[in-house]
Amino acid sequence: MPAHISIAESPDRGRHLVADQIIPPGETFTAGQSLLRCSRCRLARYSSREAQLAAWKNGHRAECSALRACAPRMPPATIRLAGRVLWKSQVHDQHHEPEGGTYEELEQLHSHWSSLPDDRKQSFAQMAALTREYMDGAGDQAPNATQHDVRKIALLIARFACNNHTICDEELRPIGTGIYPKAALANHSCTPNAVQSFRGNRIIFRTVRQIRMGEEICISYLELTGTHAERRAALLSSYHFDIALQGLPDPAASLLTASVFQGKEVKCRIRIEMHTTAPCTTDETDGLKLGLEVVGKPLDISNGVMASLAHSAASTQRVRVEESFNLDAQDLGGAGPEDDDQQGSQVHVDVWGPYWTGGDARLEQAKRVADAAASLLLSQQQAEALLAAQDPEQGLRVATQASAAGALAAEPVLGGHHVLRMRLQEVLLRCAIACGAWPAALHAARSLAATYHLLYPPIWPNLGLHKAIHAKVAMHQQLPAEALEQGRAALLCLEQVQPGSQSLREIEGLCHQAQQELGPF
Prior knowledge:
alpha+beta
């Protein structure tokens, strides 16, 4: 840990990181270790021959044998990570402390086992059993793997669940997972002062604003554009703390009426609930993310609408386990994905605020709003699926049609920065770029730029990368002035959060090209 950062502890925040001096924006500090590789299993990477020999002695000898024993099948990342951690713990040198942290430090991290529901405990136990089977494949190349009982491995995997970092590339695409005991001490904040990135398997924190001496260093565990209710639910489920404890009490929403009807824009059942106040906790940004408009003007922020799919919690958990294990549904004793589709065919829509207290006429308006919200939600998910299936042209048609229908809906309409509109525009942009539909891509990039400007901090990776994409699309449309403006804005951001990256170098070249096309000032 850098000298100007210390580990503190308090009853409400637990163990956490604190700045011992003023840290300016753009400052870099690390809490990880470098990635390695092997010529036998062709998975582990090395920076040098010395690193290869060190890795072999540090547990990869056993890992390599286990990986070759289960070839051509590949264990999921969580199981591989558990095996690697346990093998390293068996050859750990008590007099040498790895930069990323020791196994003893990992054991000090919370697993929250006692508060886990039974189905999560069962899932972790299944993971542990498979990890043990995978480790047995190392044979005599490893210390006695049976010393790790299933419960101990399950507790380790539970620690992973609420302390792991998803390793991403420069464009924020997930490429792996890692456990960094020291970096895991960075707590979450919905208004973070630092952001994590990765260079190989090395985790790097960068400050996005000046941090005062004595101030806690916090990152965001989640995407910042999510609503407060979404972030609260995800943090409570995965990390076992409630951001409502930060002074946001649960609302006492009064249900006006509830109704189930068949959607017109999309063929699905819609359950609508009308409330006098928001049925979930909200924060200051939710007025934008969940707001409504009439005659182009926002309604009071006490009014809002949100839609979600009515999947069951058990179904969602089972899908998560299947993805983690790369297993078929029958391996876990559950239903298949077709059953999930049937169970999730209903969309739940909440509308709230004083606008809706007008009797039957308001109920009919609310149904129209709910229909439009359900259409945006389902169209976004359909477009995502088409893009994943390598059919961006059809995905673009679905997203464009839904976007146009939402703009023509009867008032009130979802606000211009509503989270459902934003997410539809995000997939529309990706589809348009994938099939080279540059006018549609430029329209989506401009729309998202206005929303991101309001929702992200001025220095943030997602904002900088979007400005870079906007600049590239503008150049495809032969708009060098717009490309130069967005490119320079991207540079200001990426120089702080991704210095020396390939993305930064590409935008520097694009700005030079745009300037040449515009000529001298």
